[in-house]
């Protein structure tokens, strides 16, 4: 308990703020969690790799517009208040997410499908751009000075918990439905479920009061009339905005997305681990690691924000290639012993939407319990293999799925957990760090922009850029192609680490 401010009622504030923010992150991330499935629904199916990259690009688009949401809603939050602004973002996010689950597939409405999804994804990004800054500022302004790291770290858990909940809802839906039903319509259920959670959160949030610091500033006539001009037109404040972005938020963004989203994409699309197993092991690592957001938030009140955030970045920079090499080796069938007599090859024919494909399903089992299923699809035209105009060769798609034993699962949980620890180190203290850099009258706007540029632009583009680097390296015959995507987060985090270490001095840059 602090002498400066009572913590009575702060748990109610945190619960209401966290629940809404958690739901917004859930809404935002089910798109990424279902990227592999969505790529087959809203994009042309004749080129699976291009469809997946297009899905990642659409996913990234939601991140790219987050800074614009930060500017628009940040301005409103500094003028009319924190509470009403993030009420609006909650409803916008929930509505856009629900409608994504209702958009007809590419086969039904053609190119209108990806266009509608892109528009809805942009609305999601705008909403999240306004939500996080409001929630973090709201909790910080209810928190006792000297304890902001601890109390705001509860908001920091919501992004990871939202991802965890999205994985669990998807996993439950997959379990309750057959693979065919989930692929046909069941993938829409997690989008529909969000509208119920948004309604509950709305009922809780509408009874909240405005933050005491903002209410006091408003009563004294000290609120900003032009937050954008005061935040970015003022050279002195702009210096802190840029320092917050390049010295902290940019590095934090790539560490966050590497440890969670890139890890998930890597497991599914490079290591070919079965989706349910990926969701389960990632969920387990997130569940174990999430309490450390609060641990490092609390610790930042004791020893400072900078040292913890910089240490998290440095650990990621130095260890990512080793971690991902080790993860890849765990399921590499070249290092396992095949039970040759159990290998089967089953040919079959598939008809869909008037097209006929010839399938060749190869199943292999290994002595450690690993099972590999490889489905080669030969596209037929007039009874013969269709020819790819670009390569002049038969159009053949190969889909590989590995079901791995419990020992491998536990090993991968450990490697993901280690990455989650890096995430909690950089992300746990950053809300308090950003809030304390700026004065009350322009805080919502000033802290939201660097956060969402760092996370939305530098972090959000990571899956698409890294997947492109991996694909390009693979096409060029690089034997370690699966590690090339890591250069992006390593370079960005290194730049941020150097700037942060040289220029950030939290003792000089605090507005209490």
TrEMBL record:
Q: Does the UniProt entry include the keyword Cell membrane? A: yes
Q: Which PROSITE patterns match?
A: MFS, SUGAR_TRANSPORT_2
Instruction: Kindly provide the name given to this protein in its UniProt entry.
Output: Predicted arabinose efflux permease, MFS family
The UniProt entry's GO CC annotations, sorted and at most eight, read: plasma membrane
UniProt cross-references to SUPFAM superfamilies, sorted A to Z: MFS general substrate transporter
What organism does the UniProt record list as the source? Flexibacter flexilis DSM 6793
Where would you find the membrane-spanning parts of this chain? Answer: 50-73, 85-106, 112-130, 151-173, 185-204, 240-260, 280-300, 307-324, 409-435, 447-466, 486-504
What Pfam family does this protein match (any one)? Sugar_tr
